[in-house]
Amino acid sequence: MEAVGNGRREAALGGLAVLPDELLCAVVDLLEPTDIGRLACVSSVMYILCNEEPLWMSKYLSVGGHLEYKGSWKKTTLSRLNLCSENSENEQKARHFDGFNSLYLYRRWYRCFTTLSSYSFDTGHVERKDDLSLDQFRSQYDGNCPVVLGKLVETWPARTKWTMQQLVHDYGDVTFRISQRSPQKIIMKLKDYVSYMELQHDEDPLYIFDDKFGESTPALLEDYRVPHLFQDLFDVLDYEQRPAFRWLIIGPERSGASWHVDPGLTSAWNTLLCGRKRWALYPPGRVPGGVTVHVSDEDGDVDIDTPTSLQWWLDIYPHLAEHEKPLECTQLPGETIYVPSGWWHCVLNLETTVAVTQNFVNQSNFEHVCLDMAPGHCHKGVCRAGLLAVPGKSIRDAENHPPGTMSRWNHSDMSRTEKRLKGSGPVRASNCVNQCSSFEFSDVHESLEDQVFSYDIGFLSQFLEKEKDHYTSVWSPTNPIGQREAREWLRRLWVLKPELRGLIWKGACLAINVDKWYACLEEISACHSLPPPSGDEKLPVGTGSNPVFIVSDNVIKIYAEGGLGYSAHGLGTELEFYELLRKVDSPLINHIPEIIASGFLVYEDGVYRTVPWDGKGMPDVLAKYYPLELSFANNCFPLGLWSKQQFGMDSSTDVSNKPIWPYMVTRKCRGGIFAHVRDTLSKTDLLNLASSLGVQMRNIHLLPLPCVESLPESEDNNVKNSVPREWKQEISTLDRRKNNIKKHLANWGGTVPTVLIEKAEDYLPPDMTSLIKFVKDVDGEPVYTSPSWIHSDIMDDNILTERTPKMGSFTDAKSTGDRELEENAIHIIDFSDLTIGDPLFDLIPLHLDVFRGDIDLLREYLRSYQLPFLRGMSNADISKSVQNSKFSKASYRAMCYCILHDDNVLAAIFGMWKELRTATSWEDVEHLVWDELNRYQQSPPTLST
Prior knowledge:
Layout lengths: L6 H7 L7 H8 L4 H7 L4 H7 L2 H11 L1 E2 L6 H8 L22 H11 L14 E3 L3 H7 L6 E4 L7 H4 L2 H8 L3 E5 L6 E4 H10 L7 E4 L2 H4 L29 E6 L15 E8 L2 E6 L9 E5 L5 E4 L3 H8 L10 E5 L4 E4 L4 E6 L3 E8 L5 H8 L4 H8 L20 H4 L8 E5 L34 H5 L21 H14 L4 H12 L1 H14 L20 E4 L2 E5 L5 H21 L10 E10 L2 E6 L7 H6 L15 H9 L10 E8 L4 E2 H4 L5 H20 L25 H12 L1 H6 L7 H10 L9 E3 L6 E3 L3 E3 L8 E3 L9 H6 L2 H5 L2 E3 L6 E3 L2 H11 L4 H11 L9 H8 L7 H10 L5 H8 L9 H17 L7
Parallel strand pairs: 1-5, 2-3
Antiparallel strand pairs: 3-13, 4-5, 4-6, 6-7, 7-15, 8-13, 8-15, 9-12, 9-14, 10-11, 10-16, 17-18, 18-21, 19-20, 19-21, 22-26, 23-24, 25-28, 26-27
Helix pairs in contact: 5-6, 14-19, 18-19, 21-23, 23-26, 25-32, 31-34, 34-36
């Protein structure tokens, strides 16, 4: 909308004058800064649009990094990009033009310069209570409604110490994280941030929102304590395992948190130390006007489009009918507000504020948190958007969008894989012509026609997608905790909180389908005359992708990962591997679990039954449910290694919901999981463990591959015919990842520096066979290395140490010279991911996870390993080529495998070697992390057998 007499606009924009100013600003924001500078010279109106401060703020935030505000966002951005000198005085006086008016720019300018002093204190609609007991809190408010609590933090040192003046005095040079809707991380020194607060006139000011303040300034943790009303069941996890849960919040007037539901449906408390905050809250399922919830039906990823907090209060709130307005209150210093699980809330700072907040899980929201962990999108949409997420239950969108504001929040381009649920009016749903969502619920057994939304867990859980297996299906990337950590969390709660087992069981059924896997466990135990599981043994152990139970001295593993085809090959290959160990009398047999039983578990007509199988021959029950076309049906192990290799190259999609699961029962190995006892071991103990690992990994890598008459031709036309067939699956996988390497690395969510993502393709070899193929010095014929058995998952939770310091240290072995005693110190478990390939693959998890980058442990491992990394039919030729080929350098190959790895191993690299976060080349990363391998490779050991 343009004002009357806006003649300059049409003359300055020509044909572009038909576009609204908002759209023109959005287009300009897509340009690079240098192009914006050129566009500013085109006309007077373009000059105005190209010099808007919000534009240059957006440009800076897209770059990120350490921020030093220089009085204007244009100057700050140009300085950050080295497009102007530090002391440049070339900034010309701003030009002004008559005859141009823009309502859009005026509203934005108003939001930048408005003051909020007119918001006088009022009691609002949120109850205020002093001296609330724990019983009163649980019975009246916990999980029910918000409450403002006074006199809860009177004894905190922070009440007097957390003033801006004192914080700058004590922590002015400390760097804090800045919250802003930007994909890049922004950090500032506190003194620089305070300077920014005093100078800025932003419509959405930056504010400190730092979840790591306890690490950078541990003294701040001593200034407050968690109020006694708020227990947190995440406390049973180690700090590095638990999701982000506490934040220091500092922000100026006009800043604040836009509409959101707290992550993972946790509850929260927020204590204000200075300043005033205005709060608005809606109950669960009641999407605020102007807000759109995006839920991906591919992975359940939840994203929320919302105006800024200030924009909502100024543009949306005044148009709401009285019955459509949220609960409101003004929070004063010393007050704590409690926000229950699932409640929408929006916060506006009325003046400069300092606060601390924590999210938590307790008995009232535990099941909701577990429900939100479960894979799928239906239940996530309903938990946040209520019955808006159900077809036919949407509410007229215009009811909460007054005239003049609707167009900004209306989305007509709903994608195929994303459902957008918009703010609505009353809580009760009704049919209407403006359909806002298109969820499909195939497993909701009762009609919702006459139902009203309820945040009751029984109501919400009916929207779970029953066809998804919660244990193995991909979880949403926006879940606050990963699958491995969630399983560990539930297990620890089961052990440490026996008084809550009834509640924990209900949550575990929602999050990981534990009731289904426990029923499987009971049938397997009964079939093989194992002791029935005790109360302590009802939940899976470990953090792996397959359910594993320990019953008495037995370990029962149910193969569920990857679907029936993948899991059947996993069991078949593992059984073949064990048979091969016995056949060649490998010493490794003493360092792995003993197999007691194996087979398939079938669910038919509501009953579980077991079918024993030793890996030999093709069981009829498998053919019934999964008629595999096997290339090795006549082999002794038809689902063994070579069939698994062929299956891995098959492009067909496996089906995961077949009612049949492979299983294996083994004898429990002595000792504790290394991940659990690591911190109790001395450096000498760790060195001896590394030495033992070197011996056992040598035993794995020396094991001969199974005999096979012939391998079928690869169906992958992208892999050269000259590549040996045993390598084709690996080369095919590496090629596929290399061809999509930028997206592959970007999927790790900011783990890898942008400059390295751009250089990855040039760093990797143009032909992946270069990593396994070398050239003879004499006749130029290619020489291929031989693949080895690869464990693929040598992590600290797959290694058992047979001794702990109380039982006798590893040091005993060194002092007595008893080599056998030293070798018996470890057991290696979980061979379900067995494959073949380059032995360096196994070294990646060893060095990064087990050794945690400790170069001394790596050296000790290599000292015992005593095998060349490159082996083949002509070891002499391969050894010569190592000296002349870049691709044969062990450090280069290891780095390539890290870049192309299916797991985010690069997060471990950039987490342990923090100096690499500013690296500008992959060669720098390679040198620091893997250079020790070259020193070992330059003096190749004699191949031992």
